[in-house]
Write a structure and sequence with these properties.
By secondary structure, this protein is an alpha+beta fold. About 50% of the residues lie in helices and about 25% in strands. The chain has two domains: about 190 residues, no CATH class; about 90 residues, PDZ domain (Pdz3 Domain). The longest helix has about 30 residues.
Length: about 375
């Protein structure tokens, strides 16, 4: 189910991104030859009007083939006005940036929907938003800890802790920490709510997690729910989208800087397998966390495409900018070779990240 849900999310994100290119190209009367879901080899395709819609073997992506985009197509009489490369540079830039804008807009819609459904929020912080239904919530599970082995998940709401005659209901952060730390020996029972389901875990605190006192390996915080009416949700959704975009851009810039310095940590990256795992965790927590995660992935997709690297939208925008400054087009062969090389590098990087995702699973 998780894999299927992940593929649906990926398909929606790609559809929105490529639809941005597609509709803006159509708006400016540019011919679109193919709308591809995934990357070749092609499985099957259907044609509607002048556009072929293809479904390809590699599902992690998609593309729109726009007439004249690589500058190498033969242009027949009467087709000049429908050729991408014959359009003004401003129009070319609008077509290229449309997919990125589409992903930002999708993130805004998803986050706004999350606020209407109810998004998790910390209790006691000055958010300026109404927080209700506060509960002690697991915000992190340490790897190779008693909690990890007992299959706790981030987002689990702790209902009670018990051991023999000791019972703690409706715990706070301090009372739960004290209950665990005062456990002399043996396992404790922890009742949690995950989404709409109730679970009970038996877990034995260990002194190996925190030096000096027993612990089970979870970070906890009092979290509630922010649930807003539609007009307020749309406004807060926009603010949150801008905030998350800035944070992701900052993290992405730092990773690129570290990559050039040779100090980038591959452990901080997640490929398709890692993201699928996150989707599974978010699904277990409910609709709102799943909407938030999908929005975050959409923001990541938008910002990655802004990077001025060949084969990405940002690389093509860079070519358009260079052509505008030079007042003449970049030779078609150079653009083709650059984009092909860029695509190969991106594909190899995807394989590399996926390998590390799988290795982490086995470790």
């Amino acid at each position: 189910m998780t894999i299927f849900l992940f593929l649906i999310i990926l398909a929606v994100l790609v559809l929105v991104h490529e639809a941005g290119h597609f509709f803006v190209a159509k708006f400016f009367k540019i011919r679109v030859d193919e709308f591809g879901f995934g990357f070749p080899p092609r499985l099957f395709s259907v044609s509607r009007g002048e556009t072929r819609y293809s479904f390809n073997l590699i599902p992690f992506g998609g593309f729109v083939k726009i007439f004249g985009e690589d500058g190498a197509e033969e242009v027949k009489n009467g087709e000049e006005s429908r050729n991408f490369s014959r359009k003004p540079r401003s129009v070319q830039a609008l077509v290229l940036v449309a997919g990125i804008v589409g992903n930002f807009l999708l993130a805004w819609i998803l986050i706004s929907a999350g606020f209407m459904v109810g998004l998790p929020a910390p209790v006691g912080e000055e958010l300026g938003l109404p927080v209700t239904d506060a509960a002690l919530t697991v915000v992190e599970v340490l790897p190779d800890s008693p909690a990890s082995r007992a299959e706790f998940l981030a987002g689990d709401k702790i209902i009670s802790l018990s051991q023999d005659e000791r019972i703690l209901e409706n715990p706070s952060t301090d009372s739960a920490s004290a209950f665990i730390a005062n456990t002399k020996s043996g396992a404790i029972n922890v009742a949690v709510k995950r989404g709409s389901e109730l679970f009970s875990f038996s877990v034995e605190p260990s002194s190996d997690v925190l030096e000096g006192r027993p612990a089970i390996g979870i970070a906890m915080d009092m979290l509630g729910v922010v649930r807003l009416p539609i007009h307020r949700a749309v406004l807060e959704g926009a603010k949150t989208t801008v905030f998350l975009s800035a944070e992701v851009a900052r993290a992405l810039a730092l990773f690129i800087k570290d990559a050039f310095a040779g100090t980038a940590d591959i452990k901080n990256l997640a490929g398709p397998v890692g993201i699928a795992g996150l989707v599974g965790e978010a699904r277990a927590q409910g609709v709102a966390p799943l909407l938030s995660l999908t929005a975050l992935i959409s923001i990541n997709l938008a910002l990655i495409n802004l990077i001025p690297f060949p084969a990405l939208d940002g690389g093509r925008l860079l070519f358009v900018a260079i052509e505008a400054v030079r007042r003449k087009p970049i030779p078609a062969k150079i653009a083709q070779y650059a984009n092909a090389a860029g695509f190969l590098v991106l594909l190899l990087f995807l394989v590399f990240i996926t390998y590390h995702d799988i290795a982490r699973l086995f470790n």
